Amino acid sequence: MPDVVVQARPLSSRDSAILIGFPGSGLVGSIALAYMVEKLEFDSIGTMTSKYFPPMAMMSEGVISVPVRIYEKSRFVAILADIPIHPQICYEVSNAILDWLKPFNISEVVTLAGIITNEPEKRVFSVATEKPLLDRLGDSTIRLPIGSISGIASSILTECKIRGIPGIGLLGETINAPDPRAAAKTVDVLNALYDLHIETTGLIEQAEEIEAQMHRLAEEVQTAEEHTVRKETQLPMYG
Predict the structure, then answer these.
(1) Fewer C-beta neighbours within 10 Å, C or N terminus of the chain?
(2) How many domains does the chain have?
(3) Is residue 231 part of a domain?
(4) Structure pTM?
């Protein structure tokens, strides 16, 4: 049995754009792609499993969901995951995805991920297997001038480069916490790239809710610390 198994029906289109979002920094890729799948009402067409995946399953209202799922809508295919991919199996997962796609003559692969910076902005950075792909993005992203990317997104794009498949990587600027605001900016780039019209109000509302929770938590921590300091300064003196 193969290390990674893709079970899915054949694609409806032979010129599909493949969008891939796995959990990573800020969960940007998985949040953005899950939102797109929901808003455009993608159809579920398959799953991916592996003996190397962590033994867990997500659920909603008691119903189990396979951790890595495949969806389709028109000429778009979405590969969406709830679990991170361990570096030791990135090669196997990347090859399993592209081997499965080989008969369908796809147009391109787009990976969605996050990149942690020290800046407060929510910019979207881009990399690609060829310069003309970056030119298509225009001013909607900032090209990464030099450096490296890692994880499953880098493995997929490297394999695309080797196989001659057009590949684009979108990296939403984020912090190391769930970041719907960065995901919204990434969806905006997809809107521009494919002439889509996905409104991102829902993601902004999620971001505001998370930010409010983080603010409340920070206030609670500060209050607790101040209370501890007051108690320490009120200790009786002996001698």
Answers:
(1) C
(2) 1
(3) no
(4) 0.88
